[in-house]
Design a protein that fits this description.
Structural class: alpha/beta
Largest sheet: 7 strands, mixed
Shape: globular
Helix content: 40-55%
CATH class of the largest domain: Alpha Beta
Number of helices: 7
Strand content: 15-25%
Number of domains: 2
């Protein structure tokens, strides 16, 4: 694993000249830090470098109503979860939602969607996928165990007043494949099998 990672980094490092890395950091990262009134930490610098060599994918936040992209508050998804688990040991009890979101993100990218995280006031939509001027909205949850979770996951999507497709993706086997007020509830396994959304 270590040698594979070093080989991959070497390949990307040769493709990206160090000056481009510095320019990216100065032009993209530093202005955001100054606007937010903080200096970048070691972790922020490493995150930026990981993004540059395609180890980490940055997903911008977008206003659901006006489709305005935000400059801060982006989310990051790993290209290879093994890299994340090398730094932070895997704990399924706390990581399952992150792992599911990462799988959904990777599948959307594989299907050639432009992927954003939706923002609607104080609410967050896990993913907005845009492809050929069509949009899809996706919420990801481990289980819909109670009414409160159901309200949060489906409720956020119900507040979007357009006719684009909406999905809630879970590991629930019982209610998977059902439709709740026009929102498709599907199992992660079935979602990952789809070649069209």
């Amino acid at each position: 694993m270590r040698f594979k990672l070093l080989s991959m980094l070497k390949t990307h490092y040769e493709a990206y000249n160090p000056m481009k890395v510095v320019i990216f950091f100065v032009q993209e990262v530093m202005p955001k830090c100054f606007r937010a009134n903080y200096l970048p930490t070691y972790q922020a610098v490493m995150l930026s470098l990981g993004y540059i060599v395609y180890l980490i994918n940055k997903v911008q936040r977008m206003n659901v109503k006006g489709l305005k992209k935000f400059e801060i508050g982006e989310k990051y998804y790993f290209e290879d979860l093994g890299l994340r688990n090398c730094k932070q040991h895997l704990d399924y009890s706390t990581d399952i939602n992150k792992l599911m979101e990462n799988a959904v993100f990777q599948h959307l990218k594989m299907l050639n969607y432009q992927v954003y995280v939706g923002k609607m006031g104080d609410l967050e939509i896990d993913f907005i996928g845009i492809k050929d001027k069509r949009k899809i909205y996706i919420q990801v949850a481990y289980l819909i165990a109670d009414e409160k979770t159901k309200e949060r996951e489906f409720g956020n999507l119900l507040k979007i007043d357009n006719n684009y497709r909406k999905y809630v993706i879970t590991l629930d086997s019982f209610s998977s494949g059902t439709n709740y007020q026009g929102i498709e509830h599907i199992h992660l396994r079935d979602f990952l099998k789809r070649s069209e959304l």
